[in-house]
Design a protein that fits this description.
11 strands, 4-stranded antiparallel beta sheet, alpha/beta
């Protein structure tokens, strides 16, 4: 279980508060207007932002003071976190072995992950030679080899067209099931949340509301969410 316990974070004039839990293996969308605190919440969970108060726990263990790299987390940003000077293969490999000292088993695992996301023949290309959807697949292959139990997505498919975005969301759902990960996904789009998330968290003006079943939150949205959705 992921628990965000009485968390408070402030920067400049902005303040974020959160107190919620999500079960292991669950899929949760984080939805709300720009500037509301969605990405800040992910950064606090991932360790890129240090809260002023409260704790982040994974399966009961306090990870609040752990470095980002030592947390049981994989995080994909909107730019997919790819190194432009490195090949597709090496971009995946660095997620597995930051020192790039690969065993033969490591190399086989990386190639298998690339095949899993339909990039096997493109392993020697650079990210700049790939389409947006293919770059997203590289990031997902890196998630596969890292095999961390908690996956955070910060709108990695926002720049893709609807058909390709849905294709990538379906692939995420498939991979999450394969590795048994817990997923938190930031999105502006209710359609994305409805497609793969069993529950949703609404974030607005720094307030992180507890998770609610996705069908329920959109069928009977709170006032602030209804205003955001234009209802």
């Amino acid at each position: 279980m992921l628990t965000v316990e009485d968390l408070a974070f402030s920067q400049g004039g902005f303040r974020l508060t959160a107190d919620f839990s999500v079960a292991s293996g669950s899929t949760t969308a984080i939805i709300g207007p720009s500037g509301g605190g969605k990405s800040t919440l992910l950064n606090c969970i991932a360790g890129f932002a240090q809260p002023d108060a409260g704790r982040v726990l994974w399966d009961g263990a306090d990870i609040t003071d752990m470095t980002p790299g030592s947390r049981p987390i994989s995080l994909i940003f909107q730019d997919n976190n790819l190194f432009p000077h490195m090949s597709v293969f090496d971009n995946v490999a660095i997620g597995l072995r930051p020192n790039m000292r690969l065993t033969q088993d490591d190399k086989s695992m990386i190639q298998s992950a690339l095949s899993r996301v339909a990039l096997g023949p493109l392993s020697e290309r650079k990210p700049g030679e790939l389409s947006g959807g293919q770059q997203s697949r590289v990031a997902l292959a890196r998630v596969l080899v890292r095999d961390r139990p908690l996956l955070l997505l910060d709108e990695p498919f926002a720049a893709l067209g609807p058909a390709l975005r849905f294709e990538m969301l379906d692939l995420v759902a498939e991979l999450v099931e394969t590795i048994g990960a817990t997923l938190l996904m930031v999105t502006h789009d209710p359609g994305d949340a409805k497609r793969i998330a069993a529950q949703a968290i609404f974030v607005d003006e720094g307030v992180v509301h507890p998770p609610v079943e996705t069908t329920e939150i959109f069928a009977n949205p709170p006032v602030a969410l209804a205003a955001y959705l234009g209802r």
